[in-house]
Design a protein that fits this description.
Length: about 325
């Protein structure tokens, strides 16, 4: 049977148990609840403790998505893990495959920072549209707390940890209505979790670089400028591809970076506030996890209903940005 359309049939999410409120951050850096709340909208975030793992959070989110789609792990053909913070640089998707018992599934990681979920959605869709795979688990998960400089008040107040997942299935009608993706490496230096090496002479005359990674660095003003300009543009492009106008969307589901970015994008697109999904007050910026985490909450709260049209957009390091317009459910 050849159904080459895509439906997003289930969602799930998982966050670590530990919460850190803005007020607690004042014990660490010179900041205030008032500064963080007014500049970002964030009030608290969840933090992975040393016993948590990226693959554990991702597996928990994946299991819930599989259950809500009404399939079993054995049905999965592909597991795509969007992350910048794998437990293992060789990738964490295979570990998740094993933890799920998804014996048939091919599994690999995809890195596009905060755009990872949208890039993953479009990647997964291509496998279904070409008839290669029928059941795909897409997970967005990140533990950025591992890579934050907890002495840097410009960045440490922004991020949180979590995982979200969706199941994509082959379907008669195609529910991915349009998409657009972009990258611009000339602006790469605005947001980095950069490799750092210590030169080591292993034998006389032969030098190698012994590696680790530096904490996250960010030019906040430039990233804000980039997001406020490029996100409305890319959503317009995706809407054009979907042959829809902005007033036809039921929900605007942006990467949960910062409330001011959400507000600026919604205003530029003339999307009313009641259509904007926002849960960053409770989770901060969870990078690749933020869109599926907010999607899953909105579905479970009964906000996003079957057939609702969702405009989603991810944006971040790379720089990368993208948008996808989809209709929820079969
Ligand atoms: N608490 C108190 N003061 C602070 C803090 C803090 N946590 N952080 C910075 N400040 C100070 C600065 O030191 C500066 O003080 P100074 O003028 O004495 O030097 C002052 O506040 C203003 O700093 P700016 O960096 O200019 O603050 P800005 O108004 O730009 O707000 C913010 C910073 C919130 C990060 C903003 O630039 C922004 O929203 N950027 C978007 C970036 C973003 O959301 N990144 C998320 C990750 S990327 C992604 O997901 C796409």
């Amino acid at each position: 049977m050849q159904n080459l359309g895509i439906a997003i049939t289930g969602s799930g999410s998982a966050v670590p148990a530990t919460s850190l409120h803005n007020q607690q951050l004042t014990q660490l850096v010179e900041t205030s609840d008032e500064w963080i709340t007014t500049r970002t909208g964030i009030r608290q975030r969840r933090l992975a403790d040393p016993t948590d793992s990226l693959s554990g959070l991702a597996t928990a989110a994946g299991l819930k998505a599989i259950a809500s789609a009404g399939i079993t792990p054995a049905d999965l053909d592909l597991i795509l893990l969007a992350t910048s913070t794998p437990d293992d640089l060789f990738g964490s998707a295979c570990k998740i495959q094993a933890q799920l018992g998804a014996t048939k599934a091919v599994a690999f990681d995809l890195t596009a920072a905060c755009s990872g979920f949208v890039f993953g959605l479009v990647t997964a869709a291509q496998y279904i549209r070409t008839g290669v795979y029928r059941h795909i688990l897409l997970i967005g998960a990140d533990i950025l707390s591992r890579w934050v400089d907890w002495q840097d008040r410009r960045t440490c107040v922004l991020f949180g940890d979590g995982a979200g997942a969706v199941v994509l299935q082959a379907n008669d009608s195609d529910r991915l209505l349009g998409f657009a993706l972009k990258s611009d490496g000339t602006q790469n230096h605005y947001l980095n979790l950069a490799y750092q090496d210590t030169p080591q002479e292993i034998i006389p005359g032969v030098n190698v670089a012994q590696g680790t990674y530096q904490p996250i660095t960010m030019n906040g003003k430039e990233v804000y400028r980039f997001a406020a300009q490029k996100v409305p543009e890319i959503i317009d492009k995706a809407l054009f591809a979907a042959n829809l106008t902005v007033d036809q969307i039921d929900w605007l589901l942006l990467h949960q970076a910062n409330q001011r970015i959400l507000d600026a994008v919604a205003q530029r697109l003339s999307v009313p506030e009641h259509k904007v999904i926002s849960n960053l007050a409770n989770y901060g910026n969870t990078s690749a996890a933020s869109i599926p985490l907010a999607l899953d909450e909105a579905v479970r709260q009964g906000k996003i209903k079957p057939n609702d049209i969702v405009a989603t957009s991810g944006f971040g390091a790379g720089l990368t940005w993208g948008a996808a317009i989809f209709q929820w459910g079969r």
